[in-house]
Amino acid sequence: MIAANNQQDYSMLNAPIALRRFILSACIAVSAALASSVARGGGFEGVPLRVVTFNVKEGVGAPGSSSFNVIGDFLTTVTQNPGSGNTGLNPDIVALQECRSDANLLAFRDQFLPGYTYHRTNLADFGGNFNAFFVRGDLNVVHVLERFIGGPRNLLRLVIEVPGAGNLLAVYNVHFKAFGDQQSQNQRRLNAIESGIFVYNDLTLGLDLTGDNIRETPPPYGIFMGDLNSNNNFDGTITNLFTHINLGVPTGILNLPVESIGGAMSGGQPFIATFPGSNARLDYICLDNELASVFDANGDGQFSQDELNSMGFVYYSGDDQGAQSNGNASATSFASDHRPVVFDVYLPLAAQPCPGDVNGDGIVDFADLSAVLGEFGAAFDFADLSAVLANFGADCNA
Questions:
Q1: Which of 217, 345, 220 lies closest to 291 in space, CA to CA?
Q2: Does the global pTM surpass 0.85?
Q3: Which distant-in-sequence residues (6+ apart) come within 8 Å of 249 by Cβ?
Q4: How far apart are CA 269 and CA 279, in angstroms?
Q5: Per-domain residue ranges of the chain
Q6: Of all residues in the chain, what percent carry a pLDDT higher than 90?
Q7: Options 3.30.499.10, 2.40.170.20, 3.60.10.10, 3.40.50.2300; which CATH number does 48-347 get?
């Protein structure tokens, strides 16, 4: 290296023999590192999360009841018959609609989703129904908010710190107004408008977690779930969930109609019904653009049905002969008049430290090696030198 006075720096000749031998052998490793490349494996990258939305139809039932037990066959992390090859859906986050009883829900949680946290809206509709979440215990719920969106049921939003993820995650649970009469359609349209504005502000401006009307966080990742009571938006009542009513721009979440497992396998007309009684799609999971982009295999900004199906599925337990309902192939038929929607999402990873990048420019190169050797034994030691050599050539900005 060249010293500041433009004289050749021979200080390395005075380094201990052990250090010089270490550097000599390490230079060989550097050459190999420069010639190597990192191969990425198949599949999707990111922190995996399985999210489920499910309208349980007038509550999960009392402990020991048939509805309680059959819902627990699939909405669970508990394998009832170890070694059978059957299990539950193993969700990480569950959004429920038409909940009725805290006691029943807590009993359900303790039996079928042990260790999960429970969160609900305070307001119930005139029938006693409310929205609730179960969240895997190691996912840190840092904020809970209930918001009026025009009735009859409030939106429930959780903000979650997911270990390893690069950002906060906001999950939204809604149950829009049902029925097709004009008054009900107008109320459902208002539900969509208010939700769309609310989500747009979160995903564009960030989050206010302190109640001071200052959005102190960056925009989170967003997952919007629930029973929207509009069959694939055939009536246009939920358009403004996806397009801002005032600005005319996308709100930031996408309409993503996935198929049932059986529908995806059979091909033909997509089978997206979540309410089989009327062959209707009423239940939705909507991802933000960043989370959805993971599944855009050809990068064209659109989603084929195959790409949509790679995100998740509508679960009919007969489609897999009960493999994800602890062997009960008829579980979803008896659990509710709705079917659960399941998405496997991948949150972008948190930026990792860049070992060996001692000058902080995001690249491990000769400048870092020079800095370490120039102050070896003072500011740097063998651990620092080893980090530079092990990661030589790495571009942490890539």
A1: 345
A2: no
A3: 200, 243
A4: 13
A5: 18-33+360-390, 48-347
A6: 77
A7: 3.60.10.10
